Structure formats: C-alpha cells, structure tokens
Amino acid sequence: xxxxxxxxxxxxxxxxxxxxxxxxxxxxxxxxxxxxxxxxxxxxxxxxxxxxxxxxxxxxxxxxxxxxxxxxxxxxxxxxxxxxxxxxxxxxxxxxxxxxxxxxxxxxxxxxxxxxxxxxxxxxxxxxxxxxxxxxxxxxxxxxxxxxxxxxxxxxxxxxxxxxxxxxxxxxxxxxxxxxxxxxxxxxxxxxxxxxxxxxxxxxxxxxxxxxxxxxxxxxxxxxxxxxxxxxxxxxxxxxxxxxxxxxxxxxxxxxxxxxxxxxxxxxxxxxxxxxxxxxxxxxxxxxxxxxxxxxxxxxxxxxxxxxxxxxxxxxxxxxxxxxxxxxxxxxxxxxxxxxxxxxxxxxxxxxxxxxxxxxxxxxxxxxxxxxxxxxxxxxxxxxxxxxxxxxxxxxxxxxxxxxxxxxxxxxxxxxxxxxxxxxxxxxxxxxxxxxxxxxxxxxxxxxxxxxxxxxxxxxxxxxxxxxxxxxxx
Length: 474
Description:
- It is a single chain.
- The protein has 15 helices and 13 strands.
- The strands form 2 sheets. It has an 8-stranded parallel β-barrel with strand order 5-6-7-8-9-10-11-12.
- With 474 residues, the chain is α/β, with parallel strands linked by helices.
- It is 36% helix and 19% strand.
C-alpha cells in the first residue's frame, strides 16, 4: 500500500514543481490525502487480443481525501486495471517488467498528486498535473533502465484511478453526481481553454448529460481464442458460467458482439467471422431475435488499410447478412498515426465507421485521426475521466461516431465506464469483459449494482448511476 499526505511526504516536493492554477473559488478543492493498494486476480479463461494472451489482472485502487477552502472534506475512490499488455506493449520486456514499471510510476504519481498544493476543479488539477506525470514516467524509465520509455498511453492508464478518485471525492463534497459538476458553475474556463478555438464560449455541460441514459447496450467480447460453438470447448471450466458463444448469447440476451481478429491472416480472420455469424444467427433465431450487431477489433494488427478493405470485400461476398451487421471497425492499424500516415481510412470509413482507440491520447491525435479518415472515437475510463470528458466534447463537436470500450474493467472501474457511456449522448454501446474473464473481481459489487453486473436483454441498467461522485462506494 502507498500513502501520501502533504505533511507526510515532504520529500516529494523536490520531485515536482509547485503547480499554481489560481486563487481558490468556493467550489474548488485541494487534495489532502492519497493512498493506494493493489489487488490481483487470475482470469477464469485466457483472453487473447492483438496476438497476446492475458490470464491475470492487477487492479490499482486509489483512495483520496479532498477539502475546499471552507474546510469541508470528502473521500473519493477510483480503481483501474493496470492493463500493461495493452498500455505498454513490448516485444522485449516481460509482463512482470512492464507491470513493475507501471507500479513504480504509480508511486511517483501518488506523491505528485498528494503534494499538489493548488485549488481547482478536478479537470484543472489533472491538466496541471499530467505534464508532471509524463516527466515522472521518463524518470522511471531511465532509473529502471527500460529499453523503451513508458508510453503516454501507459501513463494515462496509471494515472486514471488517481484522477477518478478526485472526481469522485469532488462530487461527494458537493452532494452531486460528478456529471452534474461539469457546468460553468463548477468548471471556470470555457472549453477553448482545454481544447482549441473551435470551442470558444462553450462549456463541457453542453456535451455531457447531467443524468444517465436509462439503459445502455453491452458489447460482449469474443476473444481470439474463445470457443465459438460448444464443440470448440476442449477443457471445460465447469464454474456454471457459459463456455461458448451461443451460451453467452442466451445467458445475457446479448445482441452486440465485439469480434477480436488477428489482422495478419486474412483467411483465418474471414473464417472466424463467418463462424461467429453462423453461431450467432442460430442462437438469435432460437431466441426469436431479428436484429443484432458486430464490431470488429483488429487491435492494430492489420499491416495496412488494404488488408481491411480486402477483408470487408470478401466478407460481404461470403456472408452479406454478416457484413450488414457490422456496426463499426476499431483501430485496424498501428497506433502511431504519425509513423503510418499512408494508412488512411477514408475508403474504409465509407463502408463503416472506423474508430480510433489506442491512438487517442489527446486532441492533436484526434485531429490527426480525422484528417486520416477515422470517423469514430472509442472513449475509455482507463484514459482518465478528465481527459475523456474533453475527448467526448471534441468528438461530439466534430460529429464523430461514439462508443465506450473497457480494459476488461471489473468492479468500480466498470461502474465508471458505465457512467461514461450513459452520460455521453450518442454513445451506441459499451464493452464489458470482466464478467467473462474475471468475474471474481465483480463479486463484491454485484449485490449493490445488480442492474450493472447481471445483464438482461443485452443491456445495462444505467439509470441507477445517479449517486454522488462516480456513484461508487468502496
């Protein structure tokens, strides 16, 4: 466990520069206390994506205390999977090596956050602190002798539960959902201050709903090694949960399927989607369901856009109905857009929305993606609540397709994802994988939020997300 207070961690002041935002206003808070701990869980079954197989998760749980200028205080909580395989992919460093780097960074982020002496809205505090987090990531990379520096995306994931805990505490201090604290009465700058001149005079509340959508569609992930038909199950788990795709469709009433593909074997990818479409069709027909949808996620593995175009062309030839069920395509090629400028998505996006995910780390990345033909945005709680609020506003301003993805987020992090999905107008659905791969981590939360963790009709009951802060009580 790590714990930091301003009085108790004086040495950290030398590591980060004092951050000065402005004098305190009545709604502002400053951070009084930060502590965190880790939880580890094994998956019930491996989850394969992007050529990697993951069988475990480490959660970073953060507890905060904030105080306003009048002396009132509140506690907050944030949690996030560290997701190092996705956030810090490496061909040379082991799982434990990249996870260890993220833990070292978490310690630095904890001290920097606790020793920030400024008052502000959580978004202002995050905007001021994140450059210090980036510097800390560079320092950790050097000190540990990493053969590649900690990426910006990885820094965002590591910082996410700290940011969430501050938003949570801020909402609880004011007795409001955090989504009711994004208007001009609380956020003192217009959006142009955080984004660009296109947003002059606009505020975040214009793009974010104060109350959640009543129900939100859930995307069920079909991992690249998951059994499709019952005959594909080689070694039954026997824990009472479904073990094949038709079983999951019946169990949760699923009508949205996220299909993980390899991106480097066209024939295998085509065969997989055709088989999944056949299994889904049989299961849905038995249920009397006529409409269901797919998303295709190549996890950056397509060598170029031509691979995607050829895949879509041949898929339409083999199963026209399956092709019509594709709702969107997620991040088909490598995340470094600047290094892959030739992989433009204009032709593909004329067929289906093409969504930026791993590449989306700031507004510049979003603007570059739009220039390269991407037409959609995947929002993720693991990229920090503050930043995803701003990216949601930008995506809506530019009329982009919207979805919410997770990082196999269990428990509190899944609740945060559901809050994000249900408060951003235009989000078509959200992903939720922990119930498939790490249900043990959801157990402590199921009784308090049954509509979020016991899926019926393929949707979540997001109407319950009206409590103070992020609606999460640890």
